[in-house]
Amino acid sequence: MTTGYNPPMVGSKTSKIFSIFMTGLLLISITGCVSEPVSPTPGIVPTFELTPYWTPSPSPKVSSATPVLRFASPTLSPTPTPITYTIVQGDTMLEVALRYGITLEELQEANPDVDPRILSIGTILVIPLGNSLPAEIQTPTPLSVQLGQIKCYPTGDGGRWCAVLVRNTRNRSIENLSVQVALYTLAGEVIVEGAANAPLNILQEGEAIALSIFFPGPFDQDLFPQANLLTSFPVTQEGDRYLKLTVEVEKVDIQNPTQARLYGLLSLAKKSQPANRIWLVGMAYDAEGEVVGLRKWEAANNLEPGKSMPFEMTIFSIGPAIEKVDVLVEARP
Hints:
Elements: H1 13-38, H2 45-49, H3 59-72, E1 83-86, H4 93-99, H5 104-110, E2 124-127, E3 146-147, E4 151-154, E5 160-167, E6 174-184, E7 190-197, E8 202-203, E9 208-215, E10 224-234, H6 238-241, E11 245-256, E12 259-268, E13 277-285, E14 291-298, E15 308-316, E16 324-332
């Protein structure tokens, strides 16, 4: 008997079952073919392991910026640039120290080569302000003094010469006197203003000194002056910085109403230091007691202790006739 496989008849029940079976077998076979290439998943995993996120690979970029920050940080708080001040006429080291809010000793320590007793115009002082600069330099409140009525006189070129008398009513010597002078119109408008400095640095108790200023013109209207005190400081270490010099006016020759010539003698005590710098200021007054003339004189030679020195000077009036004169003196070691 011959045996073999006979496929079921098409259309029979068995044929339908056989078709379903074959279809399922075909699907399984296809699925196996598709999943075959995906099976090497372990080959993909090493790819991620070769790029680990915990390694310091980005560090070089971050660390390279760090030195830049450390290098730039000093520019945020640099060492202060030294502040300097140039001496002008009438300055003293005390005034400069007070102006910058430091002590006289601190200023002297910062300028050991500068003699505080002899300050030449143009001398440059180093201002020691430490590790920080002040937000604003404050001008100390001036000591109160007696400020006279300011008076102005027209000059030949149409300018104005103004003078005001300041009297030291305190019980100690003062120095660095200055006033602010302004010329106003009738409507109250300021036309011009400026600072007038005392011709001498020190003003002793009870003394009066004239401060003057000249405003070049011409001015084409009536102007009204006003003066306000700017600076006035107490004298420190007076005995070390100023010498007691006796001044004697021997003769006053008023040759004409607007000119007076003075003759006198300057004397220094035997126990004093030598006077290396001597200034004399002559002031002329009219009959009303107003200052009408001012002249400053400087000695050409030193004066040794126990010695005397003659002087003579001429004072001119800018306005009314000269009625009287007064003289003040200043001497430095």
